[in-house]
Amino acid sequence: EKGLRVSDKGFLNTAVLRSEITFIDGDAGILRYRGYPIEQLALHSSHLETAYLLLYGSLPTKSQFKVFETEVLHHGVTHADAEQFCRSFRYDAHPMAILTSAFAYLGSYYGEANPSLQGQNLYTRGNAASLEIMDKQIYRLIGKATTLAAMAYRVRQGREFVTPPTGFSYTGSFLYQMDHLGEENYTPNPVLEKALDVLFLLHADHEMNASSTTVLQTGSSLVDPYSAIAAGCASLYGPLHGGANEAVIRMLISIGKPENVPAFLEAVKKREKVLSGFGHRVYKTSDPRSFIVRKTADEVFKITGKDELLETAMALHAAAMKDEYFIKRKLAPNVDFCSGLIYRAMGFPLDFFPVLFAVPRVVGWLAHWRQMMLQEGGVKIWRPRQIYVGAGKRDYVPIDERV
Ligand code: SDX
Questions:
Q1: What positions constitute the catalytic site (predicted)?
Q2: In the list 106, 260, 309, 358, which could disulfide-bond 252, CB 3.0-4.6 Å?
């Protein structure tokens, strides 16, 4: 085994790289994007401005942001390139399945996934031509994320796809593509548009979470970014990760009234049930995003009215936070605990919630992918080792002699 050390189950306490993008202090409950505290960005920035920060390392000037926003919207809002593809799914296909496959499909459509482009290690040259191609793919993937999400939403309703007029923000264009039913002068409710933009910003990146690691593991073979993003999207889909916002609502619906919370928590302690939206691999005091989500929820409920599940969620939160079982295991609410209540209040269908996590997370996935492609010394393929604990050497036995 030549001195190999098995990192604990699930990469516990294992650093796979050095990064300049996102800083998390799990004990102090700190989250910063390129050094800026998440609380300040949520208050003063927008998702797309924060996307620029995560990708390129500094807050954009007015002209830099204008170019970035124009490119993202220009490369993103058309749906013709994936119309047939998205309509090929069954009417009840889970939108995450559509989104995951559509990302991989895009690469073939634009021909930027073809082997010839990869042959010369295009991405790792870092020269002007390759940086230009990388940026165009980044613009397209961020722009397309909202369009493909809206298409997955409308496929199920048998609705036509719509293209937002110019002048809408990134999040406003998304809401237009989701909700526009041909009414004159559609504009999204500004409070709801702002709330969704804050949620996008909060979900933009989170250092080496399972899906970002998947993107880098996949991208390390120098495959195109569309395929790497599709792999990350598949990882995010799971209920232990981005699928938790959907699982929280299903959990709250199954609990029903607040008076059922104690019995539910007992079942969790007996490991018969999972307390979704609680716990985190890194945060051992609190997830700083959860406080901002909670505040945003109050803003949204002023417009939409309170969700009847809120009472149960608050009763569950209060009971778990003072229960020895959860305190001992340092379990606190994470970003998914309240976000689903907002999406529900805004009228999104339950199985669409993980899509609302994946759309903004495309930014973080691409920021890490770009950082890896341009790293000093080029890209090393990610190929971990194992400790073999299986059978020793043995000889083949013909089937007639086996008992
Ligand atoms: C996200 O990594 C990221 O940064 C992710 C994310 C991001 O932005 O990318 O922050 C987004 O995915 C947030 C997490 C969303 N998932 C959920 O809410 C699902 C419920 N949470 C758990 O599945 C769990 O807490 C995880 C998956 C989030 C973390 O799991 P870990 O770090 O592997 O922790 P663990 O399973 O080793 O738990 C330690 C102990 C265990 O008890 P013991 O076996 O030691 O007795 O805590 C218990 C676990 O059983 N535990 C829970 C629990 N989470 C952990 N018990 C009840 N309910 C829970 N939610």
A1: 280, 336
A2: 309
